[in-house]
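Job type: complex structure
Entries:
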Amino acid sequence: MSKAAVIEAGPLRRFWLKWRFHLNILLLLIPLGLMPKYLHEASMSRGEIGLGERELGELQAGQWSVKIAERFDEAPRSDGPAGYFKQFNIALCDTCTKVKAVYLRVGKPRSLRAAGALFSGNPYRMTGIVNIPLKTSPDADLWLTFEDWDGSLQQVSIPLAKASPATVAWLKQQGGKS
Amino acid sequence: MSKKSRSKLWFLVHSWLALPIWFFVLIVCVTGTLAVLSQEIVWLANPDVRASKPSDDAPLLSYQQVYDAMLKAEPGLAVNYISRPGEEHFALTASVTFPDGTTPILYVNPYTGAIQGKSPTFDFEAFTRALHGWWLVPFTNGYSWGWYLVSLLGLPMLASLVTGLVVYKRFWKGFLKPTLRLRQGARIFWGDFHRLSGIWSIWFIATISITGTWFLIQAILADNHVTISSEPIVPAISREDVPRGANGEVPSRLSLDDATRAAMQQFPGFEVTFVTLPGNAYAHYYMGGRGWYPLMFETVNVNPFNNKVEASFMVGDRSTLEFVTESMRPLHTGDFGGLWVKLIWAFFGLLLSMMVFSGLMIWTKRTAQATAAALKRESRVAGKTATTTPSPSEASL
């Protein structure tokens, strides 16, 4: 702080001198204001208020079914060079004991090798983090592939517009830019 | 610049480092101190997290025995991981999911396998850490800006230490002749207190500020997708290595104890303090514990169908740089050597909080008064054209 600056006490500087200690209050307001969001997130990850922010109901594929939810009601999150991702949570049906694996992909997979993101967790709560390519069409579908322990596959799809309106809005914006 | 005015400048810098956000700094120090002891505080408050021995010679159960006991008590339970806290007086913690989707931590007796209770909705440990670590600002895209806000404090703290030692002439003499004058007024007392606790905390302030600055660097690296990790990215178990049950039956996994034994056979001396169960048919048993270098965890991935160790990350696999960077977090939290290390960290954490407070007391009793006087003088000359009168403002020492 140079002495000259003190002498030329302009209105801005006076304001700063008078109010600088109120920065403490502003800083303390941050966690206070964010407390409800923090507690909400904590309850969500403890599974106390459902599978995700937007419950999408039940999806049926052959004899299997899952409850599915969009974890965050928001645009895809960036993972740097790896691209953009969306998280969905599922709960397997009570009779799903012979489901070996569940996969999630934007667009219909051509084979099991390309079935997409593998869900992980436990039967009551599994997480799948699916890549959303930037060039995805807003009317694309989200495909779930069920792999049975006997090797058979079942598939079911849901329009992306229904699964995540925020993602579709984001995709339309991306389209506008490029 | 003369020697005198240079030391005045150092003093000024030192005086203003934590200001004007002193209260924020104080709360970060206090919550950090609480976070160090949060596990112990919960232990005191909640009998469920204590590991009471049924008899003096009761042996510890193995992971599979614990798992079986839990499933016997709660047949619908899905277990995510079982973890053995570093200190004997704590119950095991197990993350589980109930059929209704709720996912609490269960406290399990390590001798009997009895489920003693479950974590309450408000998790004190997680809360103090979130408040201290990222000011409750959520992580959405990369690191939370709260993380940056808190970890940025490492820099002024380090600067406080350096400038403090510069302005405290011959500070090493304070070790030999500790001075704490109680009866000569608040200003003298807080000054003595600040200097005395300061010199005894040099190592701690250096540790906390350097590791805190590392947290800042860590966030910058991660948010720019720069990685220095040599930890292998473990691929899912290949399709051929997951057996097909006869007639599509679900093949059973080998026991947790067989898996830990397989890991210990390959890595003699490997100690397992947590086991994570596979999250799907293509996932491993993932287990680990502290290595011979207590600031690092060693981990092993075991195929649950054939007990093959398919990946590992041991102390010896780390690069020299990782030895430094991976040591930062435990050095900051003090959770690497049991209760005594935690108590030392908490004591110095409290002392550091007091340093922020005593620094403020000194400041209000001296610098603020000087500043107020200077401002008064300034307003008197405000009407006239600027003079060359030195207006020392905060420089009044």
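Summary: The longest strand of chain B covers residues 78-83. Chain B has a mean pLDDT of 90.
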